[in-house]
Specification:
The protein is α+β, with helices and mostly antiparallel strands. The strands form six sheets. It has a nine-stranded mixed β-sheet, with helices on one face. Helix 9 runs antiparallel to helix 10. It is globular and about 105 Å long. It starts with a helix and ends with a strand.
Amino acid sequence: MKRYLLVLMVAFLPGVLHAQDHLHIQRIGLQGYFGTELPTPVRVHIPPITNAQTVRLDFVIQSGNAYSPIQWLETDRFSKSLTMRAGVPVDIDAPILFSAYARHSLRVVETDSQGREVGEDSRFIGSPTQTGRYDQQWVAIYCTDDTQCLDAQSQTYPIKRDEDDTAPRNDLGYIRLKELESSWLTYHAASVVVIAGPIAKMLPEQGKALEYYLRSGGTLVLVEKEAGNADFLAPYRQGEATLQPVRVGRGRIFRIPSLESNGLVKLFEKIQSIGTRRIFAPSSGYGSTTESAERILTATGTTFSFPPLRTLLIWIAVYILVIGVLNFAVLRWLRKLEWGWLTVSVTALIFAGGLYFSSSAGRPSHFTLDTATIYWMDQHSPVASAEMGFRITAPERKPVELSVEDGVSLLNSRGQHHENTSGAYLGSGITGNSEGVEGWDVQIAPPLRILTPMRRWSLEEFYAEGFHEFSGTVHWTSPTVLKNDTGVRFKDAMYVDLVERKVVPIPDMAPGQEVDLASIPSKPLRPPNSVYNGAFSGVDVFIPQRARERRTFSLHGFLMSGIYQLPTRRFFGGVVEQPQSIAGLDAAGTDQQNVVVAVVALDQP
């Protein structure tokens, strides 16, 4: 009898378990901690299906204020399609962009190929980092041994500010990692990642996630003895471990010999003296994650200009003369002063129409897409962190779809979310409608697609981040010779040395070409006080322009505008000739312009 019961259990137990399986959100971010500038990976478990088909996941995020009397102010929508095999469950990480509001509600809906909802899960989420403290910096410590974990944390917390200060520091929080992550976006919930455990057996995707986190502006502290695996980031781990940061793309790596050396204590004492925000800030050198692309779009992208004040004053003066003097002089001569009500109205309409058509003559007649891409590299690797900006201008009211190549993550740009959110707050309080305004409408599945409604003569900007691997990099072959192994041609380039305070212009640099900087006359670097309002003195690239003008990108002006904030002291900058388009609009006849710049951090020659 027991044998038959065992057979029945074996036969029917998988079906019972299968019936209990359902769609659910497994985790959000790094153990529930997340940021708002970069997307947050949301892991969703999808139960097995009976027939192979393509399913769609819709992520609906409603955001609101912590002290708002209404429920939600803004709604963002993300979608992802994936092909599933019959009987095979899937766990996916979807990069979702959360707004900077204090509370969120996430709802995930699974739809099959017939358009039927087959699964749903929802979760209430608090503020970014789940604490409500936007000034706190988070330290993620990877370790597998409890003793090592306690030792690593004790070396960074608490730290006294001076001998009389007994209060522990409260600007650092700690996240303990027992396993390495497989997505570089997950690590960005932390300001710094400390590797105090073995990484010899980490999977390739885990090593790639750590490297991409670094190259995108992260800070990594590597405890050499405990971590091991000398092959990981080997070019950046040469020589004796010191407290000096090593540049890896846009990020920095600090090397500590071992936990026994108390190197973490010295490092965090240094961090404390400098300031956690300065040492942990994204190290592109141009402020926020999107500021470099913003500078290029501002300098070269299509813009709209209003009539200058002088033109408006002239129109008003002529209008007053015509209405107040000429009009009534003529009517008095004709002895028809009673016609004044008609002539004043007609003259006003004529002047308004003339002003409208004269100012609209310079507006674009078709859609335009301006793209700016900056590749941040170093001389040891062909892998580049790509910062991208897209500006769409519209001649008419129409919804358009921006598509960007796969592997790109949408960024939360400044001022990008709808400006009428405060209006929605007031309107919702009056009408009782708590839906708020519509925010993002994004398709995550390759390629990345963003649907945005456009008004007539309006512009929208979007920013994204990704990675690109060149065939090589720009590197030293001798103390004065640079070689271009990237596989692309630079139509304009320059070498900048902040130590010797000089700039060496390079007019052209073909793939594989070597350039002897000693044979090119250098120019002196101006002092930092020559920088005004983000632009280098004497460079007129960052000035307002007319709407229809296409400007020529100035590499010199772009690099000089943020040069003294760059953490690297020597670097190469070049404008890529004939770059391939990475984005497109679904509007016919779109005029497109693409500017691509590569910035390579260089070591001592």
